Task: inverse folding
């Protein structure tokens, strides 16, 4: 279980996170949305123990985090974070060494390392560029390598900070697919983004943040249907929600579902 209890955090005098009580365990994918600067990345750094709240706590399995070196090492095998900039997380020039690094540190046997690295690279669709030097990869490819580096640890919670920032549409679709595969393995994903369409599509529950506070929480379809709330936080509604709210079209979770339902409706109209 990964939760926070009345978590307050400030870098200097002003609080950036203000009394956040959040639960990331109930749903497979929990989305965090909010305008730039609302505190999403700061929250992730608190969740991964890189920053320590001045008040309240991050709880792992019901207990406040252990901030000792050993405690954090143990936490990171269960809760791993992929930050926005992959360059911050990639240390080697070749992909295999980079991904194997944390496992070698933990003293995992080489045969097991090879197996886990291979599985992780397959999951993120990175096998075909596995031999290339990291500096030659695109931003999206680096991002996938960073995710593979988190996956090899076998973490139960993967925290993705702005996973689609800087990706082109195909990179974005690929990221959605990768998130689905991670979830299919029984893991939890926490995903922060100001890409509202992405959060709507992949999340089972969402928290809407504004200036370090939770303004709303619940099922994405319900929360994002509240037009006035979305305006207040400086976000637009997901386009699939807009079609439903403004034109009364069926509320669908994905573009594919929407078009397939519309095609069926049209076919039925033509037949009648
Ligand atoms: N290292 C830092 N020192 C001081 N203030 C910071 C630092 N990092 C972020 N902030 C401030 O904290 C607030 C939240 O930032 P951040 O967590 O990056 O938000 P988000 O990820 O939602 O865009 C912003 O006002 C930002 O300027
Ligand atoms: Mg951020």
Result:
């Amino acid at each position: 279980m990964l939760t926070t209890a009345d978590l307050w955090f400030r870098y200097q005098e002003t609080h950036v996170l203000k009394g956040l009580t959040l639960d990331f365990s109930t749903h497979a994918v929990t989305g965090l949305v909010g305008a730039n600067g609302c505190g999403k990345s700061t929250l992730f750094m608190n969740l991964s123990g890189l920053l320590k709240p001045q008040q309240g706590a991050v709880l792992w399995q019901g207990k406040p985090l252990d901030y000792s070196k050993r405690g954090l090492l143990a936490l990171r095998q269960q809760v791993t974070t992929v930050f926005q900039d992959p360059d911050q997380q990639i240390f080697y020039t070749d992909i295999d060494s980079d991904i194997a690094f944390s496992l070698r540190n933990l003293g995992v046997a080489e045969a097991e390392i090879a197996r886990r690295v291979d599985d992780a690279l397959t999951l993120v669709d990175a096998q075909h560029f596995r031999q290339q030097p990291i500096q030659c990869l695109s931003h999206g490819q680096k991002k996938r390598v960073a995710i593979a580096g988190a996956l090899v640890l076998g973490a139960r919670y993967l925290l993705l900070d702005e996973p689609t920032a800087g990706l082109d549409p195909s990179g974005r679709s690929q990221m959605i697919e990768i998130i689905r595969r991670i979830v299919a393995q029984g893991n939890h994903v926490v995903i922060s983004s100001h890409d509202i369409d992405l959060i709507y599509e992949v999340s089972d529950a969402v928290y809407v943040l504004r200036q370090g506070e939770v303004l709303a929480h619940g099922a994405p379809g319900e929360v994002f249907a509240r037009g006035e709330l979305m305006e207040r936080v400086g976000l637009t509604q997901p386009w699939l929600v807009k079609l439903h709210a403004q034109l009364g079209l069926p509320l669908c979770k994905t573009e594919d579902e929407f078009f397939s339902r519309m095609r069926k409706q049209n076919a039925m109209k033509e037949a009648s």
